[in-house]
Amino acid sequence: MRGEECSDPLINPSDEIRSDYVYRDRTNNDEVEGCFCSEGFIEEGKKQLGLAVPLVAVSILQYCLQVISVMFVGHLGELPLSSASMATSFASVTGFSVLLGMGSALETLCGQAYGAKQYHMLGVYTQRAIFILLALTIPLAFIWYQTTFILVTLGQDHDISAGAGDYNRWMIPGLFAYGVLQCLVRLLQAQNNVVPMMITSGITVIFHVFMCWLFLFKFGLGNRGAALANAVSYWINMLLLALYVKFSQSCAKTFTGFSREAFSDVLGFMRLAIPSAIMICFEYWSFEMVVLLSGLLPNPRLETSVLSISLNTCWMVYMISVGLGGAVSTRVSNELGAGNPQRARLAVCVAAVIATSEGLIVGTTTILVRRLWGKLYSNEDEVIEYVAKIMPLLALSDFLDGFQCVLSVINLGAFYVVGIPCAVLLAFFFHVGGMGLWIGIICGLCVQAVALVIINLCTNWDEQVMKAVGRVQETEALQ
Hints:
With 479 residues, the chain is mainly α.
């Protein structure tokens, strides 16, 4: 588990910071065996589910903003649906996934700091991440502004590209709020304080549905109304959460106000954030590339509409795995920061069992609702029938993707050496169409799942906890 240098005025430098934990965890065989007994397994499962259920709700509610907008636009016609879908995919590739990946570095940093009782550093890390992500948002916003030009250059249909560009321009203000929101979510997540996030996200979704109806049908803004509703909703969610962090007593120790330390060790943060962003972006891009490739198939409006519906469905289900992954990341970071390698290993084992169970349930549900799901997005019989046909493939990909989300990532080889080439071969050379694109993604997921299981089985948890403890001791010695 990676981390970064940190300081903490709340811990007495004269203490032997975490060495006693490491020693006890290595030498007390009874404690080690107790971790992996049925009682220890169940106890860890309760901790993860107690943290994961609100995180899952938060992830789904936040992603629902984009899904709801596309659903509203879909009832305006096939061209508006394909344009909004293409815009959403492009926005995810060039904006949302980048900020999400950079912000994910806080799961490790804040989680380890909280486990080591370095509460002040949570606020410092969060402020540092906010400054960096806001700076990064400026070039990303410029890319969004050029959406139409970029899509046309890539060979996409001109009408779809024009609509997508218009959509993303109106959504640019929301990109700034989205970056800050990801940082605040990680701050609270590291403290196991997730209920406020669920409440604020729920309030935002309610407002979002109203704004979509108002902007699209009352003000007649069409695609622009859906994009504007997205932007406003991200700002509402971010401001509600920021107010909670500012005034809640539960954050009094972890967010003590502005700190100049936030501007120090920026490179240290980037060393962790950039690999995190690359890991997440490689997977997000591989899925979103399916929608971009669908625009090159015959009948691009139909293929883009159906593949985007499939992708929206896949990402919404994926948010369940994101919540589970966030829970296990927090648990592992907390235990490593506290010097407990065996408990960190137990957390990963429990997470794998939970992810497998979740995948089976979600996959079964996806198949059962396959003939109803398309009606939520479109009134076109052709679209509804195509969605029903591709849903079984979604069920399989949801299962595999959820499993790997909990166990970390190895995306470059799995998706770009296996997944995407298989997708292109099946879709364009064997003429399987949009379903061929999705089968290619499943091939990549299979390779990824096998590789991740092997990597996690070979992880030396004693070595990982010594690295985490060493970082804490090193920074304490510098104070």
